[in-house]
């Protein structure tokens, strides 16, 4: 079956008890057992819940994987992947990660004896040089926030495999509709389902998918042992979001391309970052490893901080807010929001200047989005 069909049907058979067409929200913590050792596969909802099972099966299918696990947040999912490591192990990671991932690695997991080397994954020789005999995991994120740079999942996975390391890819920005990292050689895919998979800015969640039975069993053990599970209603919300993932992603992409092309021609705009523009430095890689370019766009205003502040104050359709991937368009100022903790010099060196704005382009009418930006930027000059 094709993606859009799997999104609506996998793990979502009519309810065996009632025939309910939609997977019910099994809002229960426990399950009445028929007798000693006789039950229907569920005993306690941290260990397993039928609504969560439906979500896990659907996520696995969309990532072309055998196994899926759902978590209470993207960072809980990330923690489950890192639970595969032990004190003394080393991780090579891209240097342009989601801020919360960096914080988890640097401020929490280093205290537990795991060490990290962050380097630019666009340069394969830098990743290669960062490997040590103790390296057990290569952690990648592509495309990245907010500069929308890519790394070559296939080439980097090959390199890691030769050195006996696991490869995990944070696939949040692309969604499985546009990119399936395990098809390119990665071992584990990680999502913040808060973003495109949920798709409606009404739930926080996370997920992992893999084809490796050993990694799956270990992360499933950790899921139950540590307990960072999503509740039945949150699982249901993500599952509901997944049903429209295919149509949403197509519209996010069409709108993002229209917005990126508009911005590229705008005299007040210095530069536009969107992997779907042929001028993007990794356009060829994007075409090779992604099936589409998703809905995230960032751009730099010539007028710097002052111009950015006025755009933020002038937009009406775009909301000035953190997060991304919902049906509504959002605008963020990375320098003062997601990247505020980064030293200014390093931030600027990465292009995260005071004049940089990031857009999560929603699925409203593209003409309205462009008119909103045109008016807001026009006022900036
Ligand atoms: C939001 C996000 C996360 C963290 O997910 P939460 O659901 O907020 O815990 C991780 N990676 C990326 C790329 C994200 O955008």
UniProtKB/TrEMBL annotation:
The modification N6-(pyridoxal phosphate)lysine is found at residue 195. It catalyses: O-succinyl-L-homoserine + L-cysteine = L,L-cystathionine + succinate + H(+). GO terms for molecular function: cystathionine gamma-lyase activity; cystathionine gamma-synthase activity; pyridoxal phosphate binding. GO terms for biological process: cysteine biosynthetic process via cystathionine; transsulfuration. The keyword Transferase applies. Pfam families: Cys_Met_Meta_PP (PF01053). Its cofactor is pyridoxal 5'-phosphate. It is an enzyme of class 2 (transferase). GO terms for cellular component: cytoplasm. Keywords: Pyridoxal phosphate, Transferase. The keyword Transferase applies. Its EC number is 2.5.1.48. Belongs to the trans-sulfuration enzymes family. NCBIfam families: PRK07811.1 (NF005871). This is Cystathionine gamma-synthase.
């Amino acid at each position: 079956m094709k993606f859009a069909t799997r999104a609506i049907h996998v793990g979502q058979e009519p309810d065996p008890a009632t025939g309910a067409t939609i997977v019910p929200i099994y809002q229960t913590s426990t399950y009445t057992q028929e007798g000693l050792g006789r039950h229907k596969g569920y005993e306690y909802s941290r260990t397993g819940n039928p609504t969560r099972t439906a979500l896990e099966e659907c996520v696995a299918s969309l990532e072309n994987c055998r196994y899926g696990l759902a978590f209470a947040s993207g960072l809980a999912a990330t923690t489950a992947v890192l639970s595969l490591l032990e004190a003394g192990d080393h991780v090579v990671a891209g240097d342009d990660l989601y801020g919360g991932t960096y914080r988890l690695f640097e401020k929490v997991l280093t205290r537990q004896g795991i060490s990290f080397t962050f380097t630019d994954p666009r340069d394969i020789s830098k990743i290669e040089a960062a490997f040590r005999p103790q390296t057990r995991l290569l952690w990648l994120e592509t495309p990245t926030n907010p500069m929308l740079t890519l790394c070559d999942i296939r080439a980097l996975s090959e390199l890691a495999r030769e050195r006996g390391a696991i490869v995990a890819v944070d696939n949040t920005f692309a969604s499985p509709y546009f990119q399936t990292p395990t098809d390119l050689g990665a071992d584990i895919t990680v999502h913040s389902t808060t973003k495109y998979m949920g798709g409606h800015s009404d739930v926080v969640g996370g997920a992992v998918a893999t084809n490796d039975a050993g990694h799956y069993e270990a992360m499933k053990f950790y899921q139950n042992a540590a307990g960072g599970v999503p509740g039945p209603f949150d699982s249901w919300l993500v599952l509901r979001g997944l049903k429209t993932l295919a149509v949403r992603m197509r519209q996010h992409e069409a709108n993002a391309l229209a917005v990126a092309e508009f911005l590229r021609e705008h005299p007040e705009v210095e530069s536009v970052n969107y992997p779907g523009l042929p001028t993007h430095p990794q356009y060829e890689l994007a075409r090779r490893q992604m099936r589409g370019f998703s809905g995230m766009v960032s751009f730099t205003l010539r007028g710097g901080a002052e111009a950015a502040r006025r755009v933020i104050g002038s937009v009406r359709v775009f909301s000035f807010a953190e997060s991304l991937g919902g049906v509504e368009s959002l605008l963020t100022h990375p320098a003062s929001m997601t990247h505020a903790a980064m030293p200014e010099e390093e931030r600027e060196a990465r292009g995260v200047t005071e004049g940089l704005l990031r857009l999560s382009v929603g699925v409203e009418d593209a003409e309205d989005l462009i008119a909103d930006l045109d008016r807001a930027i026009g006022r900036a000059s």
